[in-house]
Design a protein that fits this description.
Elements lengths: L8 E2 L5 H10 L9 H6 L1 H4 L1 E6 L2 E6 L5 E2 L8 H13 L7 E5 H8 L5 E5 L5 E5 H6 L6 H13 L3 E4 L5 H15 L5 H15 L7 E7 L2 E12 L2 E9 L6 H13 L5 E3 L7 H9 L4 E3 L1 E6 L1
């Protein structure tokens, strides 16, 4: 069991069942409310959980300290009041972050004492699975051309990720980061840590993966999972950027092989990175999952 607020327990595999129980009973559409994401980034952000009025509370216990949206529907006004009181003891700027639009509309629109601010850099991108897997029509003409050119040059192999491939995937990730000097960039360093957490705990987490091989070596890797009854969320997509079309191929092949039962694909946020934003927009999202930062007025 998780401790009672304001006591917290660090996120590890022992809290996976209680975390998943809460998000299954009180689903939130944003990609943060997924155990794999919280677990993978737990060292980077020191994530912890607690229970308050039968709601699960997720604390980001690194500077700036913050709390995610309560997962639950019990005594929300009182719960928010206690969260803000706690945050005032921890930080000069108390706020909730990554609060999805559904929660705002349900519980916060009538709260005149709150300031609700969009977090555009954290909006999730949502696509139709069928469109990304098939890439039909003029709006995907460029993607299709890159894939066709890739296939005309390379004899590649797609493989579903299995525990026996983990060691090779870790070597691929290490090589990818060495070439891009991940250690110089905090964002890439945190991402690498999260990817290694997913790979090292692949069998314990409810995740799927796929790789592309060229000349018997891994050149692309992706990891995702079924996030809700109709959505596949993509956690990782890494490829050798020196091979044109490879990113498009791993994206399409993974969905074809692993996401057939899903209607939608959530490719998570762009973090305000211009190149990442342009890439995600180029796949023609059908909508965004909006998220908000909440402060007391």
């Amino acid at each position: 069991m998780a401790p009672v607020f304001p006591e917290f327990k660090a996120v590890d595999l022992s809290v996976q069942d209680i975390f998943n129980d809460f998000v299954s009973r009180y689903p939130l559409e944003a990609s943060e409310y997924n155990f794999t994401n919280i677990f993978a980034f737990r060292k980077a952000y020191n994530f912890k959980i607690s229970l308050l009025h039968d709601n699960m509370i997720i604390l980001k216990d690194t500077e700036p300290v913050s709390v995610f949206c309560p997962v639950g529907n019990s005594h929300i006004p009182v719960t928010l009041k206690e969260i803000f009181s706690y945050l005032k003891t921890r930080t000069k700027d108390p706020y909730l972050e990554r609060v999805p639009e559904s929660f705002v509309k349900t519980y916060l629109k009538s709260q005149k004492n709150l300031v609700i601010e969009e977090e555009r850099d954290h909006f999730d991108y949502v696509y139709l699975e069928k469109e990304l897997a098939q890439l039909r029509g003029n709006k995907f003409h460029d993607k299709k051309n890159k894939i066709n050119k890739f296939k005309s040059i390379y004899n590649y192999q797609y493989q579903t990720l299995t525990p026996g491939l983990i060691e090779e995937c870790i070597a691929f990730e290490d090589d990818w980061c060495e070439k891009r000097e991940c250690g110089k960039y905090p964002g890439l360093e945190k991402e690498q840590c999260a990817i290694l957490e997913m790979l090292n705990n692949f069998s314990a987490l409810n995740i799927k993966g796929g790789i592309i091989r060229l000349d018997n070596r891994i050149v692309a890797l992706t990891i995702g999972e079924k996030f809700s009854k109709d959505t596949m969320v993509i956690h990782i997509e890494k490829a050798n950027a020196d091979i044109p079309g490879l990113y498009q191929v791993i994206n399409q092949e993974f969905l074809k092989h692993e996401a057939g039962s899903c209607t939608y694909v959530n490719r998570e946020q762009d973090l305000g990175i211009e190149g990442l934003r342009n890439s995600k927009m180029s796949y023609n999202p059908i909508r965004f999952i909006k998220k908000y930062k909440i402060r007391k007025r």
